[in-house]
Amino acid sequence: MDDSLSASFGHQLNDQLPRIQSIVHEQIEFVGDVRDYLKERAALERQYGASLQAIVKKAMDKQSRREQALSVGLEPSKQWSGATSTLDSAWSRILTEADEEASDHTNLADSLQNEVCEPLKSVEKRKEATCKKHLEYSNKLLSERDKLYNEKQKAKQRYDDACASVESSRVKQGQAKDEKHLEKASKTMDHNMNEMLSAKNSYLISISVANEVQRRFYRIDLPRLQDDFQSLWTLTTLKLVSLMKITARLSGKYLQSLFAHNDHFLTATNSISPTNDQELFIDYNRRPFSEPQDFQFEPCPIWHDSEDFSLNATEPKILLQNRLGQARLKAKELEPTIDTKRKEVSKLENLTKAYSQNESLGDSDSVLENFLDTVEQTTTLELQYTVLAKEIEVLEAALGDDQGSQRPHNFKSASFVTPTSCYLCNSSIWGITKQGVTCKACSIHAHVKCGPKVPANCPGSAPMHSNHSHLSSAMATASPSPNSQQTFSESQKEQSLSSLKRAATKANNVPPRQANLNRAATSVNSNRAIRSTHDEPNIPKANVIYAYEATSVHEVTVAVSEIVKVIGKDDGSGWIKVEKSDRKQGLVPISYIEIIQEAVVATTPSPSGRVNSIPPRIKKAKVLYDYEARDTDEHSISVGEVIRLTKDGENYGEGWFEIFKDGRNGIVPSNYVSLFIFYVLYFMQVTKTKTKTDETVLRKNIG
What we know:
Layout: H1 9-12, H2 17-44, H3 48-71, H4 86-101, H5 109-175, H6 179-254, H7 259-270, H8 274-283, H9 314-357, H10 364-399, E1 411-414, E2 420-421, E3 428-429, E4 436-439, E5 444-447, H11 474-477, H12 487-493, H13 497-503, H14 514-527, E6 541-544, E7 563-566, E8 575-579, E9 585-589, E10 593-595, E11 600-603, E12 620-623, E13 642-645, E14 656-661, E15 664-669, E16 673-676, E17 680-683, H15 692-701
Parallel strand pairs: 11-17
Antiparallel strand pairs: 1-4, 2-3, 4-5, 6-7, 6-10, 7-8, 8-9, 12-13, 12-16, 13-14, 14-15
InterPro entries: AH/BAR_dom_sf (IPR027267), Bzz1_SH3_1 (IPR035459), C1-like_sf (IPR046349), DAG/PE-bd (IPR020454), F_BAR_dom (IPR031160), FCH_dom (IPR001060), PKC_DAG/PE (IPR002219), SH3-like_dom_sf (IPR036028)
Domain F-BAR: 1-277
Transmembrane segments: 667-684
């Protein structure tokens, strides 16, 4: 195999597997031609000159017909100049010498039959079987690649179907005539939206996987397979050369009188070089080649979308977090197996070379078959690992630090003889036909379809990784307390039909700081009535909006509406350290609290001690970007313009604010403006002489 190192089909003949298979098949069939020739020659040795001359002529005719196919293939990339391979040239010379030796080869028949023809027959059969096995493997490789391509297309279809369902739900929601039907349509809309986002995420993953598999196919698997066919060609030719040398030796032993002819035969045989023949084939079969372009995300024609992962909704994000955990687990299981297989391939490759160079060591064909089987197994495992590695890379890039707790639930199939509530959707699981899953470590029950959507925060499972702390932020953000006030989801459910349409496309043009603005506005709204006369000036305080029960010594239990001191910094892990009024300290989910904003207080002493509250805030905003109204319910705004929000205008719908301008209410994108929110508490002396006019003027002055 050493003389084939200078030529490589995998690197020099890109994507020409069918032609390589054809030329290798020609090489193997040529073994049959040689065997036929020697068999007939052995029979005709007894007939001397005339009969031998007849079969030599027949072999010459075959060689003439196969000359181009044997040298440069049947479909060369340039005009064949008549250049022949060393094998073809040597064969021509051998036939010429055989024609001259016809009268001398009488007693050679038996030796040729037993020591050359029968081994050639065995070689032909084994090489044909090996070639057939290679062909089956190449078809399997193509099938696996096409299967992944089809998975990508199926993911695209599922995504399109999900988009169509969302559009259908949107139309039905617009046609709802009463609150009952509207609520049902809204729930259907939310469900279909989550399904669409999940389908999109799956589609994006399938695109990345298909691209990675495509690159691997054309850079690793296909070149390796072509090199394997090249090795088969080399071994077939070397085996043929070995048997032809035996023929030469027998001729010299049994026919001393024809020694001169035999020397010519041997010289011709020794001139055969698989490397030279393969380089000739390469020279006549060079073709331009470029790798196919990467697959790209194709948005649904009826749903405006981008190729960004959908992480705003909780359910699709949890699905991605769980998928990341599963991919890491499977990849970790594959790594030692692949490492072992690679070492085995390396050992078998050295063994194959040794056996091919010294046949006295044993059966080189068996060693080669074992080597090729191991290579195929390794390639299959590497392909699986490539898919998992790409999934992990894509998911880690998409999720960033928000990868969830990575404490997977150990769900097992279960049947429930009594109605049991699903942990995720709260609907019942009951009966043989409605199978569910159960995590015994944390006693969670869920539907089979809901299981992958449950956050991986099982207290009985060790975390698979720890990027920032002992817990990940998904545990805090994915599953708030069932009894907590769902202020954000309720406002989202109240959004109008047009708001839903725009919310689906807002991710394409949201300025980076909008999330901070919205979070600040929401925090001020929920905390404007919370003040304490004993606050320490340098320690921020927070209001607990969801109750949380500690699950470890590092955490602390808090109750709804409890005021705590924030004594730790937000390190991005999803957890923050607080101190309670009883001096107990510990971690709580950062999403379960809201920082209390400092209020600007203007006070006037009041003898009676009464406080007369004026509208607590001036709801205005400054325009950051120009926006042209697209519908009749929208307003056009310009950069630098100061606009005034309506009552609860910031809660109009996800991604939109309602403002008052030009004598009417209208909506604008929330990410195009920056809120001005001022809390002003006026403590004024209320006397009997205070008039209604004074209060009216004061209200007007503060907006």
